[in-house]
Batch of 3 targets.
Target 1
Amino acid sequence: MENIPCVELRNVVKRFPSVTAVDHVSLKVEQGKVFSLLGPSGCGKTTALRLVAGLETLDEGDILIDGKVINDVPAHKRECNTVFQTLALFPHMTAEQNVAYGLERRKVPKNEIKRRVGEMFELIQLGGMEKRRPSQLSGGQRQRIALARSLVLKPKILLLDEPLASLDRKLRKEMQVELKELQREVGITFLYVTHDQKVALSISDIIAVMVEGRLEQVGLAKEIYETPRTKFIADFMGATNIFSGKVVAKTNGELQLQTEKGLKVIAAETKDSSKKITGISIHPELIEILPKNTGLKGDNNFKGKIVEMIYQGDFIETKVCLDQTSELVTVHLSSRQDREAQFSPGEEVLVHWSPESSNILLG
Amino acid sequence: MKSWNKTGKILPAVATLVYLFMWAPVFILVLFSFSNNKFGIKWEGFTLKWYAELFNNVAVRNALKMSLTVAIITVVVATIAGTLTAYGLYKYKFRGKRALRTTILLPIVMPYVVTGAALLAFFTRIVHVPLGYPSILIAHISFSVPLAVFVVLGRMARIDWTLEEASADLGADRLTTWRKITVPLLLPAIIASAALIFPWSFDDFTITYFVAGVGSTTLPIYVFSQLRYGATPVINTIGTIFVTLPIIGLLLVSLLQKKEVT
């Protein structure tokens, strides 16, 4: 009985005439967790979500909710609800009628509907807005009504298809926090689809990165960010420094890699060190820029010249061209560091990162 | 500036002329329906006697009854059939969909004479539909359905269809979704097509004339037959009713729309 996943996909395949949208995907979403499907547009993540919702029929494999196969259960009888990207609020109904819609379909007694809808409006802090039409609500309010409309049904799992995509940056951040708080409060399981790595990192317990219909890596948010397994994921998660290369030496807990252009880079050994390593990636905020005359400190020290500094507010995106191989390294220089060191484009500098910051890539 | 001034005089003049040209005959017809002159061509003082004559005229009453019956049945049947057809054409994929979609709208541009003659030949020689109510109804419905399809298809292109998915997702079966979501969303188009079909059917002369047979007379056919005896004031009164009813209808619709907006 222990640990039956809330939702499980077993070797699920969905083919469209021109493309295999979901290609043998298996995953388990645990009870009470936020599980994100992250990937670029067209990677099949929305199709995967729609398969769980029952809005698409699958070609192969099984989908289970609470350990029961639901392949043939039609959408309107599944115990999951969706928050659509367009929100899909019914324009001809009031906010209240929208929220009550699902309960009415379930033939819940009138007075109970009234009570539960009222509670929902309190939860999403929109008391007083009950009689408004969707067109009379703001973007954030519509968002909450869409959430309420699904949550009021107490689904086993809530499916969210980029529900924040249409909001502006500030509101998106606020709603992100609100969504996470709401999730904790209600204790409901989320399957969240997004192409925005920032949203995924901040909201998820587990992230699955999807590329061309396949899952490339599944792990804790921290793992996906810090130790992406493939070049694609490293790039997608913002690790802009990616070097293809191979291992040339292994010495006491350290790997020595030679990049295609001949740069020798040191990486700390990990549990994956025995697999075939194809390169390394380094997040730009893990690299330091030091004045030219600084004494070398250990591994991964390279001389170079600053070629570009782009002001980004909270950091300065700095590109350094390495003397040895003419490869570009991108560094996110914090504003504080910059104030202390006063770097300028054209300056000869030293870049450095620790072996632990070198992340091994396997594909 | 000079040329501006010139346009400033000519344009209103042309516009006034066009407007007069459009409305003067109608205005005179309405005016003379209240005139005492028995040929209905001169003003000889106000009277309502032609209206009295109109409503006492059994032939007119029967023709009006027939026209209204035909129009109402046509509106109901054609709007329902047209809406369902449009839905099917828009939502489902099947072989020959494109061809069907094109040909189903073709009757809108078909000359009435062709449609009328074809229907008559069809009814009398091939399927033997009795001429009269049955043939008139079939003819009216067959040229009205494409109108409904056309109007409803236009609306469908502007609907967010995830709303239907959302309805299913929230637990509604197909029929409930159709009733609670799809129909309300299509309602403006359904009403518009009904409003379009009613006068279309009520006014139709050409096609009806072909398929009516002996003894069945709709109001337009009655008016035409009376004109052989010259324009009588009774014709003017019928004309007045024909003109006033749609205007009232139009005003009602725009009033309703205003109410909905606020």
Target 2
Amino acid sequence: MEDAAQEAFLKAYTQLSKYEGRGSLEGWLSRITTNQCINMLRSANRRPESSVSELTDHEGPWLENQMADASIERHQSSERGLIASDLADKVLSELPPDDRLVLMSIDGEHLPVKDVAEMTGWSESKVKVRAFRARRRMRQAVEKLLERKLISADQKGG
Amino acid sequence: MAETHITGILEEKPFGSLSGDDIANVESHTAICDECRSAYSAARIADNLIHARSAETVDVGPFFKTRVMAAIREGRLSPEEAPLVRMWKAAGALVSTMAVLLVILTGMTIFSGSPDSQSDFTIAASQNLYSPEFVVLDLDDEELANDQVISTIYDLEDGDGQ
């Protein structure tokens, strides 16, 4: 993440002469950073380091709790939050970078569609369609994870 | 309404933005549809994962500013290096041209070397360049002792007399 931030700053500095002052400086910086992050995610996707199938000793019980109790609070202890965050990274890594960006911006950070469109340079319709697909892919990735978890639990039990 | 699958509702908007009516529709349908029940459960867990991920803050390292400034300085230096790079490339082209010329000249020397040396030898022989007179006259005075010069000249005269 630091690398992405550093590259974004560097690009902003070297391309400052290209900033025409039409939009806000913040929007221009967000766009540079977004492009940088998407590029880095794309190159990271070419060499996946971890797989959802490799759940840690903590991630398995976290999922079990989630499955067992639908009313479980979203924000739990910091330790459980970290476990969930690591698991989220694994599940999100199965999604295309564009989907991850849209999902984290709209569903995670609650940014309006308009802001995401400005950040990415896409039309608002494209952002909405992307978000729709991204939610489906994320849900399907979690469903697969739950199925695998149930299968492995059955194998251990049987 | 309860018969309609609810996956479209789950994908249309963020999970946390589902209205009371949406949730009522979802719950009435999931009571009779296993497939949508598992989809609903997965959507809820996915939403929890997304929020856990976005809640995590990342502190930059203490040397972040130094790293960025160093990178910017390097980036700023690179355009000034461009003329040097251009000079280096031009020099490379010049050296390549000289090397090619050298190869051509060497080739010409090798191919035309033997006849030339032979013709030099022929000229030298026809002009009697290797006769004692030429040898003596060709050498520096210091290289020959006086008696050697005298004996050479006398030998020549003796030879002519005969």
Target 3
Amino acid sequence: MIQLENVHKAFGANRVLRGLSLEIRDGETLTIIGGSGTGKSVTLKLMVGLLRPDQGRVIVDGQDIAGIGEDALAEVQKKFGFLFQGAALFDSLTVAENVLFGVRNLNRKSLGRPDELVERSLGLVGLKPEVARLKPAELSGGMKKRVGLARAIAHEPEYILYDEPTTGLDPIMSDVINDLIVNIREKLKITSIAVTHDMKSAYKISNRIAMIYEGRLVSVGTPAEIQATTDPVLRQFITGSSHGPIQMPVKAYV
Amino acid sequence: MKPIRVTFQLFSRQVVDLSETVGSVVVLLRKTVRSIFTTRLDTKNVVAQMYEIGYQSFAVTSLTALFTGMVLALQTGFSFKKVFNEPLYVGTVVGLSLLKELGPVLTAVVVAGRVGAAIAAEIGTMNVTEQVDALFTLGTNPVRYLVVPRFLACLLMVPILTVFADLIGIGGGYLVAHFRLGIPSSTFWDEINAIELEDGFHGLIKSLAYALIIVTTSCYKGLKTSGGAEGVGRATTSAVVVSMVFILVSDYFLSALLVSLGIG
């Protein structure tokens, strides 16, 4: 279980999180929604220790990771798989080397048969074994995301974090990725936390949806509860309306 | 009063920024050294970087040294001919200048331009595309994976490139001294042989310091890159400019220190 308690995080004068509290239960898929720049990706990076909170606690399986040393943090990071927004594949390595990268460094145990592990991980994300020898530059956007996902699950993490998994993909490929996320949760019994502003994706993949607004949690509920909400902030966001309490900073060109 | 206050605020912000940068560089250096002694060395990566930094820079540093030695002999010969009517001390001037100053400094400047830019651009691009974050989440410390191999390769290869630059520069000086100025080979080489070993150490110690400046600056700039392609461009330029300025400024102070310690 992951708990965020009264977390604050600022970048210079920009106070992104201002007292965020959130709980992620084991086995569920929780989707965090919110406008651009509201701190969704920052929240994910705080959970895995890529960022440290200015104030508050980030508790992973009972351990507060906010102030622990690098070695202890490395142990906690073994529990996580992270799918980055742009997949963040290592350009100089092949797909197979990318997939095995985490297994080699995190588990430090004998790999057994690496080829089989690569094949199995790629199979789970719907890719053929032939892809293994390609370099990331030879892959399409959707394939990069899939390889990123294969790399994130190869070391069998307990939690998987998705940072905008469908951003930049066409609607069909977005749905393919949504199916993969659901499929992986069911096959691997893994706890998933996704960040998105794609509501179709959020409804499809989530057990619960949480909305962040002005650095705090404003609402959390099942997809059905969220769709039936009367809260004006949440309502405006899920319907994608430019009129309502959420004011987006827009540059005026006169 | 307002302009004074604004000036003071700007100045104090600059001082704070500079202190923060110096502090961060020291922290990076400490992490790198600690990582070398406490974690398993990625030998394959170190060798790859040695090839990239050393072997790939050899042609350009050699060419620079060859022509520097040649022009040094030419200028010394003709200048001394004007003053003494004889091209005296060409071997001594060429040898000492190359070993103590031009060999280490020019090699470092060329490496800063070629390697410093490449390091900052590569690590910077990895940073803005979240590959550095990905390393963290896959159980790999970016300092161990990205900085340590470049650090070791640079500290090893820059002094080696400097030794070759010294030798090739002296060779170039000999060609001009003998074939253009008509100085007998024995005179030139006797003067070179008379140079003490300490003068060579003087240059090598400096080249080690320059290697440290280049690799620390460029890795730091790469790891601090933000703001997409524009940010990578900014980091690359900044890595090269800062390295070169630090090399040239520290040259005076290092030389003064080494001379006062009796080394060269």
